[in-house]
């Protein structure tokens, strides 16, 4: 039986991928009390890493938004792996996003809207969240965006 959140994802044409295994010595998620912490997710697609580049140099805001959305999709894939059922999510508390940025690039919030808008579309009001959008000099594998998340769970 498909839950409310997975039905919403299906309606917008999103099929969650298999949650990615960690690339180093860490776990992809931690549950403590009523919180689920998802480790930073990169734009990993069906054919491997996508969206490699620096915003403001190699990548446009729109390209960055696509990367951020893919990170958000991967966050939900990790949440499903952690919880078994996305309907156990009470709300998305916070996203922390890192944007691979050229020195003079200042549109990190616009880039991260790709993830924020998707989370609200996927989770409804449960997807409204606090957020940080930070420009950084480099990210693992040269990806454009990396995002971590904190959820409140039932």
TrEMBL record:
Annotated TM spans: none
Domain spans labelled Endoribonuclease L-PSP/chorismate mutase-like: 6-140
Pfam families on file: YjgF_endoribonc (PF14588)
Taxonomic source organism: Stappia sediminis
Full protein name: RidA family protein
